[in-house]
Amino acid sequence: MLRRVYQVAFALFPIFAEAALSVSPPQLHANHQGVAQTDVRSGASVTTRWSARLAPWHPDEAHAVIRSDDALRSREGLVSPRFFSLRPGDHQTLRVRLPADGYWRLVVEQLSAEDSLLDAASGLGLMFRFSMPIFRSQLEPRHHQLTPLLKLGCELIENHNDLAVRLDAVTGSVSKTTLLPGDRAWYCSDDVLLKKTLGTGQAL
Fold first, then answer.
1. Burial of 180 (0-12, 13-18, 19+ CB in 10 A)
2. Is there a single domain that holds both residue 191 and residue 92?
3. Last residue of some domain: 135, 157, 172?
C-alpha cells in the first residue's frame, strides 16, 4: 500500500550515552501474563542509589527524552523494586508487570546528585538515566526490509500493523528504527541534509 506525501528532508543527529549500569537483557519482552524482568549490574566504583518506574511509550515519541512527569504515579507499584542501591559490582533483578494496554518503557534513573559519578576527563559529576523498551509480544519487533530509495529525497514510513516493527535499511537512514503500531518515521537517502523534497510514502 503506497501513499503520496509531501516530505521534508532533515539531518539525523545520533545521541550517545555512557552507561553506568550493564543491563541484561536491554530489550524486554512481556510473557503471556504481562510480566518482564531484567538484571542490572553496577559498573561504578562507588555505591549508587536508583529508582525504577514505567513511562508511556507513545507513537511518534519513541525516542523522545523521558521526563519525570511522564510517569503514571498510580502505576508505580507495577515495578519491583521501585528503589534500590548498588555497591560496586552488585546486581539487582527488576520485575515489571505491564498495564493491560499500551506500550511502555522501563526507566531506571540515579536518585541523588550526591551519588553522581565523577567523569575523569571533565571532572564533572554525572547523573544517569536509562530507558528500556518493553514489547508486548515475543514476535516483536518484526523486521521489515526497506526498499532502497531510487532518487534523492525522503519517504514517510507508516506502521499499520498490530505489532511493533524494526526497520532495516541497506542504504540511506531512518529517523527511528522501531515503529510502534500507528507510528511513522522518515526514510532518507544518504545525500539528503536540510532541503525540501517530494516523494512517495511506504505503508507497512
1. buried
2. no
3. 135
> How far is 165 from 157, CA to CA, in rounded Å?
11
Cell digits of residue 189? 537517502
Helix or strand run (H / E) with residue 42: strand 35-42
* Averaged pLDDT, 80-93: 93
- 74 and 100 housed in the same domain: yes
Q: Name the percent of the chain lying above pLDDT 70.
A: 67
Domain that holds residue 77: 21-135
Selected residue with higher pLDDT from 200 and 16: 200
Q: Which range, 17-21, 55-59, 181-185, 191-195, has the best average confidence (pLDDT)?
A: 181-185
Here the cell at position 19 is 552507561
71 exposure class (CB count in 10 Å sphere: 0-12, 13-18, 19+)? middle
